[in-house]
Automatic annotation (TrEMBL):
This is ADP-dependent glucokinase. Keywords: Cytoplasm, Glycolysis, Kinase, Magnesium, Metal-binding, Transferase. One of its GO terms (cellular component) is endoplasmic reticulum. It holds the Pfam family ADP_PFK_GK. GO terms for biological process: glucose metabolic process; glycolytic process.
Length: 489
């Protein structure tokens, strides 16, 4: 199979020489870009979403919000930073906010935090609205993924309670359930503090473009659309159920009178997944979590009962750490080696499979999708319901570029590749298998055996957008794009 791992040996010198001759870079352009783009587009064009009676259906929960996009370094002044950058599980003061933002900024790491100080949050929103580049958009994992599924040709049911104004951002063909008809809804607002690669904030410089999200939600942590979505699932009969937005529960003050409302709501999420026939695939969209109690709930009430998990490199490291050691990993390498990510994917797969068994689940994890700045990696179990893994990796890669550049057209002068000419498939010193990057066949796929199951692993390079227009919502669009070709009706 093209792109499969090979053992190091005499072939190495040939491949390196060939690479040096054919893929020599000059000062203007990486000559790999054009063939990579053409082959990714070829895979996308050869693999279409079904239509008519074969049109797949997806139901997504939970929640929505108004995203307020703000230029982070315009809103914040590095001179106000007192002391070293620091991580906080929740934000209660301006000082904590600045330290927390700078902590993730210097790592170029995505983060999402709850601000418990409502007065300060409202003040920051008002300050943001005075800046010239501030803009509004619809936000929330479920709505953004819903819009991507719809754009790619799926029939969509969205569980979210939102105002009439917020609903106007959603295509009319998407069915929205969550409120009681004429109910007046106050939308939650999320502040999206964006920054570019190599941007400076005082003495610190960001290694990559990213965003820091802050919220003071009232509706979303309670999953207020859960019951309404459940009522409509019976007649909608989806091929795929997507569980997302649970990070809004992170550090939210739930416990009252010794009653754990969060655990109760998550139990209802579990029951909603279990209510679906096993041929309705279930996907969980991971996010930025720091509340260990919530993460441990997810390992017993959500993860054992889904078929698929999607996440970025930060979320992968965190989930792996929680499953293996019971500890939160706040920040990780923002551009990990392929071998490192693949090892974490394998371990996460095995640990969730153990949870499947421990919880007597009728479902087994059969898919993991990890999206990073430099590449897409998708692992699927052979013989499972997931189809077209190679094309899905290509689709996710193309979507990453298009979304971040905010353009359907892929211009080579706005692209760069970070993937090396070859990569190890594991960090295990006893296994020296490598994949050699071929620009004319850029999506590398190979077979492995994990826990007595044969799996396919595909890695696709990302044509990284060098002029980032959007960062928040990229993961939602990429994850959805990775799913659209993998489910067939």
């Amino acid at each position: 199979m093209a792109g499969a791992p090979v053992k190091l040996g005499s072939i190495l010198s040939f491949c390196v020489v060939f690479y040096a001759i054919y893929y020599r870079k000059d000062n203007f352009e990486d000559v790999r870009l054009s063939p990579v783009k053409e082959h990714l587009l070829y895979l996308e064009n050869e693999n279409k979403v079904g239509s008519g009676t074969h049109q797949p259906k997806v139901a997504l929960g939970y929640g929505a919000c108004h995203d307020l996009f703000v230029n982070a370094t315009s809103l914040l002044n590095p001179k106000d930073l007192k002391g070293a950058p620091e991580h906080f599980n929740e934000i209660s003061s301006k000082d904590e906010f600045l330290k927390s933002f700078t902590y993730f900024f210097k790592h170029g790491a995505a983060a999402e935090r709850f601000m418990s100080n409502s007065a300060l949050y409202d003040e920051l929103v008002q300050q943001s609205l005075k800046l010239p580049d501030t803009r509004w958009a619809i936000g929330g994992n479920a709505p953004l993924m819903a819009k991507r599924f719809h754009l790619e040709g799926w029939k969509v049911l969205l569980g979210a309670k939102m105002s009439k104004k917020l609903k106007s951002y959603i295509p009319k063909d998407i069915e929205i359930v969550g409120d009681n008809g004429n109910e007046e809804v106050k939308d939650d607002i999320h502040m999206i503090l964006e920054y570019r690669a190599d941007e400076k904030f005082g003495e610190y410089k960001s290694p990559r473009a990213n965003r820091y999200i802050m919220h003071n939600d009232e509706n979303n942590p309670l999953l207020t659309s859960l019951e309404k979505l459940g009522e409509h699932l019976i007649t909608f009969s989806p091929n795929l159920l997507v569980i997302s937005g649970l990070q809004m529960m992170d550090n939210f003050p739930f416990k009252q009178d010794d009653k754990d409302l969060r655990a109760e709501r998550l139990e209802l999420v579990k029951q909603q997944i279990l209510s679906q026939p096993v041929n309705t695939l279930a996907h969980f969209e991971m996010a930025s979590y720091v509340d260990l109690e919530l993460l441990l709930h997810l390992t017993t009430k959500v993860l054992p009962f889904v078929d698929s998990v999607g996440m970025n490199e930060q979320e992968l490291s965190n989930l792996n750490s929680v499953l293996e050691y019971g500890k939160v990993m706040v920040v990780a390498d923002s551009n990990p080696r392929v071998a490192t990510a693949l090892d974490q994917m394998r371990k996460t797969f095995q640990l969730i499979r153990q949870k499947n068994t421990e919880n007597g689940s009728k479902r087994k994890l059969t898919r993991i999708h990890v999206h990073t700045l430099a590449y897409q990696a998708i692992l699927t179990v052979k013989g499972s319901h997931w189809k077209r893994t190679k094309a899905a990796a290509a689709k996710a890669s193309l979507t990453a570029h298009r979304y971040v550049c905010n353009s359907q057209n892929i211009a080579l002068d706005k692209c760069k590749l970070l993937l090396d000419d070859s990569f190890s498939t594991t960090t295990d010193d006893n296994n020296n298998s490598r994949v050699f990057f071929e620009a004319t066949k850029p999506v590398a796929c190979w077979d492995e055996v994990l826990d007595n199951d044969e799996v396919d692993i595909c890695v696709a390079p990302v044509l990284i957008c060098t002029e980032a227009q959007l960062t928040a919502g990229a993961g939602d669009n990429i994850s959805a794009a990775g799913l659209v070709l993998q489910v067939e009706k």
